Automatic annotation (TrEMBL), chain A:
This is Ig-like domain-containing protein. GO terms for cellular component: plasma membrane. Residues 17-136 form the Ig-like domain. It is found in: Membrane. It is a single-pass type I membrane protein. Belongs to the myelin P0 protein family. The lineage of its organism: Eukaryota, Metazoa, Chordata, Craniata, Vertebrata. Residues 1-22 form the signal peptide. PANTHER family: MYELIN P0 RELATED, MYELIN PROTEIN P0. Keywords: Disulfide bond, Glycoprotein, Immunoglobulin domain, Membrane, Signal, Transmembrane, Transmembrane helix.
Automatic annotation (TrEMBL), chain B:
The chain crosses the membrane at residues 12-35, 82-102, 114-136, 148-173. InterPro entries: PMP-22/EMP/MP20-like, PMP22/EMP/MP20/Claudin, PMP22_EMP_MP20. This is Epithelial membrane protein 1. The keyword Transmembrane applies. It is a multi-pass membrane protein. The keyword Glycoprotein applies. Keywords: Glycoprotein, Membrane, Transmembrane, Transmembrane helix. It comes from Astatotilapia calliptera. It is found in: Membrane.
C-alpha cells in the first residue's frame, strides 16, 4: 500500500513538472583573463527531458558600454557555426559536447576590446522555455611595473637633504669645538676653572663619541675629531703648560705642541 | 622618574630594563607595520573579483594563480607617486631611527634626552601621515560601493599613531644610570 502510494506520488511529481519545468542554463558569473591568452567560456543546461537531436546552443556578445548584442556562435542540427565576420572571426572554436549538454566555446588570443558580456542560450526541444545566462569577461593587460620618476626624485632629495644637514651640523660642531678649545686654553685665569672644564668636557666627550656610531660620516672627519683629547689629560696639560698670558700666539703654539706630544704618547 | 626608596637597586634596574625592552619592541613593531603597509599591495580591495590593489600594482586571480598587473592609467599619477615616495621615506626614517636609538643608548651622557631618535621617529610619523592622507583624499573617493579599504591602509594609519607615540616617548625619556 505504502509503496504503491510512493510510486504514484513520484510518477505524479514526474509528470506534472515536465510541462511546467523550464530549462536551466548555467554559465560562469565573471571571468578574468590576460591579454593574448585563451579562455574557455562554459555553458551547460539542465532539462527534465532527454537530450534531443535538435538541441541548439547560441552565444551572443555585447561589448562593454554598448546596447546591442551580436550573435557569434550557433550550434544546430548537429553542426557548429562560428563567427566569420564579426570581432571573433578566426578566434572562436567550439569545444563543447552537445551530447553531454555542454556548449562551451574557446576564445583565442584575447584583446582588450573583448571586454563584455557573453550570453548563452540553449534549447532542448520540446523544452524551450528558459532564461539565457550571461558571463562577464574582463581582460587585463600585464605590463611590467615601472617606478615613477617623481617617486625617485622625492626620496632622493629628502635623503640628500638629510645627509647634508648632518654633515653641516658636524662640521659646525667641529669648528666651534676647536675655537672653544683654543680660547679656553688662552683665557685660563679669567674663567672659573670647573665651569669651563666641565662645559668643555661634556662638549668634547659628546664630540668624541657621536661620530663613532653614525657611520655615514667619512673616516677623515672621525680622525680629525680625535684631536680634542679626553678631559682628564686636558686639565693636566693646562696646569702644566701654562705660560705668561701676554704671549698669546707663542704660548698657544707651545701648548699645542705639548698637548700633541702627550696625545701621541 | 624617581624610584621610591623602598625599591632596591636590583628592582629598579629590572624595571628600567623592562621599559627599555618595551620601547625597543615598540620601535621594531613600528618598522614592521610600516614595511607591511608599504610593500604589500592591499590599500584597496575591489569587491568584483576580490582584487587587492595599490600602491605599486594590482593583483588579479586568473587560471588558479595570482598575477600582478599595472595600475589603471586613470589613477592621478603625481598623487600616486607622492604616496609611494612618502611611505618609502617613512620606512627609511624609522629604520635609521632604530640604529640611532641603539647608538644613543651607549653614547648619550647621563640625564640627556634621546632627541635624535625622537626626531627620526617623528619624521617617519610625518611621512606616513602624508602618504595616508593623500591616499584617503585622492583615491577611490567615488568608488565606495565598489570596494573597501584593505589591510595596508589600516596599517598605515596605525603606524602613524604608533610612531607618534614612540617619538613622544623618545622626547620625554631621559637616560638613566643603569646604561
Amino acid at each position: 500500500m505504502l509503496t504503491f502510494l510512493a510510486l504514484t506520488s513520484v510518477a505524479f511529481l514526474g509528470i506534472v513538472p515536465e510541462q511546467s519545468q523550464a530549462i536551466a542554463i548555467y554559465t560562469g558569473w565573471e571571468r578574468h583573463a590576460l591579454v593574448g591568452s585563451d579562455i574557455r567560456l562554459s555553458c551547460s543546461f539542465f532539462s527534465w527531458r532527454w537530450t534531443s537531436e535538435d538541441v541548439t546552443f547560441s552565444w551572443t556578445y555585447r561589448p562593454d558600454g554598448s546596447r546591442d548584442s551580436i550573435s557569434i556562435f550557433h550550434y544546430t542540427g548537429g553542426a557548429a557555426y562560428v563567427d566569420n565576420k564579426g570581432p571573433f572571426r578566426d578566434r572562436l572554436e567550439f569545444v563543447g559536447n552537445p551530447g553531454r549538454r555542454d556548449g562551451s566555446i574557446l576564445l583565442k588570443n584575447l584583446e582588450l576590446n573583448d571586454n563584455g558580456t557573453f550570453t548563452c542560450d540553449a534549447k532542448n526541444p520540446p523544452d524551450i522555455v528558459g532564461r539565457p545566462s550571461s558571463v562577464r569577461l574582463l581582460v587585463f593587460e600585464k605590463v611590467p611595473i615601472q617606478a615613477g620618476v617623481i617617486t625617485g626624485a622625492i626620496i632622493g632629495v629628502v635623503l640628500g637633504l638629510l645627509v647634508l644637514i648632518v654633515v653641516i651640523y658636524y662640521l659646525m660642531r667641529f669648528l666651534v669645538a676647536r675655537r672653544v678649545f683654543s680660547l679656553s686654553v688662552s683665557k685660563h685665569g679669567k674663567k672659573k676653572k670647573e665651569g669651563s672644564q666641565q662645559r668643555q668636557a661634556s662638549f668634547s666627550f659628546y664630540l668624541f663619541h657621536m661620530p663613532l656610531f653614525l657611520s655615514f660620516l667619512p673616516p677623515l672627519l672621525f680622525f680629525l675629531c680625535l684631536l680634542p683629547a679626553p678631559p682628564h689629560t686636558q686639565t693636566h696639560t693646562q696646569t702644566g703648560a701654562y705660560t705668561h698670558p701676554a704671549d698669546n700666539t707663542k704660548s698657544n703654539r707651545l701648548v699645542c705642541c705639548h698637548i700633541q706630544a702627550l696625545i701621541v704618547k | 622618574m624617581n624610584f621610591p626608596p623602598q625599591l632596591s637597586l636590583y628592582q629598579s634596574t629590572v624595571i628600567m630594563l623592562i621599559l627599555l625592552a618595551a620601547i625597543f619592541v615598540l620601535h621594531i613593531a613600528c618598522i614592521i607595520i610600516l614595511l607591511t603597509a608599504t610593500i604589500d599591495n592591499a590599500w584597496w580591495v575591489i569587491s568584483a573579483g576580490n582584487m587587492p590593489t595599490d600602491i605599486w600594482a594590482r593583483w588579479v586571480f586568473v587560471n588558479n594563480s595570482w598575477h600582478s598587473i599595472d595600475l589603471p592609467s586613470t589613477y592621478p599619477e603625481s598623487y600616486l607617486q607622492a604616496v609611494q615616495a612618502s611611505s618609502v621615506l617613512a620606512c627609511i626614517f624609522s629604520i635609521i631611527g632604530i640604529f640611532v636609538f641603539v647608538a644613543q643608548l651607549f653614547t648619550l651622557p647621563k640625564g640627556q634626552r634621546f632627541l635624535v631618535s625622537g626626531v627620526f621617529q617623528f619624521l617617519a610619523c610625518l611621512c606616513i601621515m602624508i602618504a595616508a592622507s593623500i591616499y584617503t583624499d585622492r583615491f577611490h573617493t567615488n568608488e565606495q560601493s565598489l570596494g573597501s579599504y584593505g589591510h595596508c591602509f589600516i596599517l598605515a594609519w596605525i603606524a602613524f599613531a604608533l610612531t607618534f607615540l614612540s617619538s613622544i616617548i623618545y622626547f620625554v625619556l631621559r637616560k638613566k644610570t643603569a646604561e
